[in-house]
Design goal:
Elements (H helix, E strand, L loop, with lengths): L23 E6 L10 H10 L1 H6 L1 H4 L2 E5 L3 H13 L3 E5 L4 E6 H6 L6 E12 L3 H16 L8 E6 L3 H17 L1 E3 L12 E3 L9 E14 L2 E15 L15 E7 L2 H17 L4 H15 L9 E7 L2 H21 L2 E3 L5 E3 L11 E5 L13 H4 L1 H10 L2 H4 L2 H4 L12 H23 L5 E4 L3 H8 L8 H8 L1 H6 L5 H6 L11 E6 L3 H7 L6 E7 L2 E7 H11 L4 E2 L15 H7 L13 E3 L17 H13 L2 E2 H10 L4 E4 L5 H16 L9 E4 L7 H14 L7 H26 L5 E2 L4
Parallel strand pairs: 2-3, 6-9, 15-16, 15-23, 16-21, 18-22, 23-24
Antiparallel strand pairs: 1-4, 1-5, 2-25, 3-4, 5-10, 7-8, 9-10, 11-12, 12-14, 13-14, 17-19, 17-20, 18-19
């Protein structure tokens, strides 16, 4: 086999490979592939992990070069030379692999690269500090890439690594770029903080990395010691492609679905899965994939959907066997009592499905201000990269989630967010989870409602407002949120007839376990305290802190202080009713949802619509203003939704506070024997503070499946396809390493 050789030129001055940008497309493989063999297995792996590359037929039609890293600097120079000759190069170590080609070739074949190499500079100097040389080398690379320093998102300096370590580190950085992941340094975070999160940028600003690899070698000539420092600098920008999404289900997060029309049928299916797990435990990924494919195929025809469905979840095969036994033991009683059964691991079964096509009691519930928390959704982007890409194209994702505050290293910053920022992040989190559930899993609600400002989230998230992103900057700057009902509380000062010389208002709100009537009877004695919210067995009072505490003392109750300044849902807020209405008059989309009933806390037992049962921007804005400025009776809102047919309440937003409140309302109804207790009720959180994002989401999907809500499990199947392919790829990489192929070998050359 013929070998290609190349060497990097070194001198006491900086060496410039080229003064023109490189424009090289980079695709990351998790391990080396035997591209020269072009085997059926390799083709299948590429079709799953890099479908665009597979469909382009590039690997079948182009000359391929495979380079095993031994001298990274030399290998890179040879790689660029080969690419300039029109070849495709795989450069690899035992654990990492990069596929490299000219960006024009990738574009012509509609291959979306994970990243683009725009510049590479190599420098070497004697008696030079490594930082000085790295700065100089990086500046040359920026000049080659035709970029300014302020366009660099991150600078990464990696000193004193050998060639294999250098290449592996560069591959990991490119993976971060392709998955849009920002890693925090271990010494900057606490044990409870997320180690990484989405890599946010300013709107329409590309992510660019400057990578500097430096090494210092001591040379001894004629008893004189000198240090020679070498540096390789890269400028790498984000590509149009993404690393394949992580699988929601894997070997540590197992799920099976069992469905049938009878108890006997369910027990039979449970027994079959148990037998397969005992005899084929090593093939659990394939077993789960086949189970989901069979379920999807069986339920593609809505006319033959089985009456019952069980979702089983566990962290290992051994734990899954325990879940199977527990479910089989509980099944007869659950069916006879028409109840539900769940385990801490997430397995779930209900004998009274509330989300069937016939009943269709599915309601999306949107939480209000104050549910967002530090590091929320920190890992979600790895599992749904296309969703985050879509949100970035639509608007300013960083602002939508208030990322600078939510992902601040100081965890005390998020709870202290101003009201406007809390509102933005709250709507943003609800919008993100709604798009995930609706677009990825094809879940469509029949009803929608919101807690307080959750009503705004409802209209923003469900395809009604044409440009909800327009409200972001407006919310941050409008006096309504900055000073009228928060901050200086100008609306309250006006209602209380205070002049500019009056001292600042000390405002607070308190959650108290009490019924509304008891509080309302005492309010005339405390004119600056208000009943703000009614929510099951608790209420929220707000107003002058002194009078609120006096009211609590009179009731002989202990209140939990929110320590947040907002006059929403109090009488002074009515001073701003017209401003609130004007604020929320937003243009609507041309095509509006017709199969969702939008329920407002201000609309009694009816849905929000105009005289012709359609949606109107003015009516929506007035409805939000009415809710905003009056006492919020969340109990009455839930009862209204139940009377209209809502039974299965799915919370779309950060944490699960609304689910907790609805569960308490349902429990209170049962204890009181009210008419509302006749309505079945079940809550489904899609997120929970302190929990794992994906585990909570998977549990939610399991509940929806058991409640027979029509949805797609295709994302789960696709993820398992990738997990299986990765397992095969790892085995293939070991084979390549054991064969110890010659370095720099051209395919087909003798």
């Amino acid at each position: 086999m013929a070998n290609l050789t190349a060497s990097a030129t070194r001198s006491s001055d900086q060496v410039i490979k080229s003064e023109m940008p490189l424009r090289i497309a980079l695709l990351v493989l998790p391990a080396p592939l035997d591209l020269s063999g072009n085997t059926e297995q390799t083709s299948e792996l590429i079709s799953v992990l890099l479908p665009e590359l597979h469909s382009s037929k590039l690997l079948q039609t182009s000359e391929l070069v495979s380079i095993k890293v031994d001298d990274f600097e030399t290998n890179l120079t040879a790689t660029i030379d080969a690419i300039e000759q029109g070849k495709i190069v795989q450069i690899y170590t035992a654990t990492s692999s990069l596929l490299m080609m000219h960006a024009l070739k990738a574009a012509q074949n509609r291959v979306h690269p994970h990243a683009q190499l725009a510049a590479m500079q190599i420098s070497s100097l004697t008696q030079s500090a490594s930082t000085v040389l790295a700065d100089s080398c990086m500046n040359n690379a920026l000049s080659q890439a035709k970029r300014q320093f302020d366009s660099v998102s991150k600078r990464i300096d990696l000193p004193q690594l050998d060639s294999t370590q250098q290449f592996n580190a560069v591959c990991e950085l490119i993976k971060d770029l392709a998955s849009r992941t920002h890693h925090r340094t271990p010494d900057s975070i606490s044990a409870k903080q997320a180690a990484s999160h989405y890599w946010f940028t300013e709107h329409h600003q590309a992510r660019v990395m400057a990578i500097n690899l430096t090494n210092t070698v001591e040379n001894t000539v004629k008893s004189t010691a000198t240090n020679t420092t070498s540096c390789i600098s890269f400028i790498v920008s984000q590509g149009t492609g993404f690393i394949a999404a992580k699988s929601i289900i894997d070997s540590k997060r197992l799920q099976f679905i069992v469905s049938a029309n009878s108890e006997a049928g369910l027990l039979n299916q449970l027994s079959k899965i148990e037998s397969k797990l005992i005899t084929e435990a090593d093939s659990v990924l394939t077993l789960m994939r086949d189970n989901l494919i069979a379920y999807e195929k069986q339920h593609s025809d809505k006319a033959v959907i089985n009456k019952y469905a069980i979702t089983l979840q566990a962290s290992s095969v051994e734990a899954m066997l325990q879940e199977l036994k527990a479910m089989a033991d509980a099944l007869p009683k659950i069916i006879s009592e028409q109840g539900q059964y769940r385990t801490p691991a997430g397995s779930y079964f209900t004998a009274n499905a509330l989300g069937t096509v016939e009943q269709n009691g599915l309601a999306f519930v949107y939480p209000g201000v104050g549910t967002v928390y530090s590091d929320m959704f920190s890992q979600l982007h790895r599992y749904f990269p296309s969703l985050y890409a879509k949100l970035e194209r639509e608007g300013d994702l960083k602002s939508m989630l208030q990322a600078d505050t939510i992902y601040h290293l100081d965890t005390k910053v998020t709870p202290a967010m101003p009201l406007g920022d809390l509102a933005i992040a709250g709507v943003g989190s609800s919008y993100l989870l709604t798009q995930l559930l609706v677009n990825a899993f094809n879940v469509t609600p029949r009803f929608a409602l919101g807690y307080s400002m959750g009503e705004a989230s409802m209209w923003a998230s469900l395809g009604v407002w044409s440009d909800p992103h327009a409200l972001i900057e407006k919310t941050k700057t409008d006096p309504l949120f900055t000073s009228a009902i928060s901050g200086k509380l100008t609306a309250v000062r006006q209602a209380w007839q205070l002049d500019n010389t009056s001292p600042d208002i000390v405002w607070n709100s308190f959650v108290v376990r009490s019924d509304a009537k008891t509080i309302e009877a005492l309010l005339p004695e405390f004119p600056r305290a208000y009943l703000a919210i009614v929510q099951g067995d608790t209420c929220v009072i707000a107003g002058c802190e002194i009078q609120c505490r006096e009211l609590l003392a009179r009731m002989k109750k202990r209140g939990i202080a929110a320590n947040r300044v907002t006059a929403m849902h109090t009488a002074p807020a009515m001073e701003e009713h017209s401003n609130v209405e004007q604020f929320y008059i937003q243009p609507l989309l041309e095509s509006l949802p017709t199969d969702i009933k939008f329920i407002s806390a201000a609309s009694g037992d009816s849905t929000v619509s105009n005289a012709t049962a359609g949606l109107d921007g003015q009516i929506i804005a007035r409805s939000i203003a009415d809710t905003f400025c009056n006492t919020l009776d969340f109990t009455a809102l839930i009862h209204s939704a139940q009377k209209q047919g809502a039974t299965l309440f799915v919370e779309l937003g950060a944490d699960r506070q609304n689910c907790t409140l609805i569960d308490k309302i349902a429990k209170q109804d049962r204890q009181c024997g009210s008419k509302s207790s006749d309505f079945p009720c079940c809550t489904v959180p899609t997120n929970a503070k302190g929990g794992d994002d994906i585990t909570t989401l998977l549990k939610a999907l399991g509940q929806l499946i058991s409640h027979r809500v029509p949805l797609s499990v295709t994302p789960l199947i696709d993820g398992l396809h990738r997990e299986i392919a990765l397992a095969h790829l790892a085995a293939s990489a070991k084979k390549i390493e054991s064969e110890q192929q010659p370095n720099l070998t051209l395919q087909g050359e003798v």
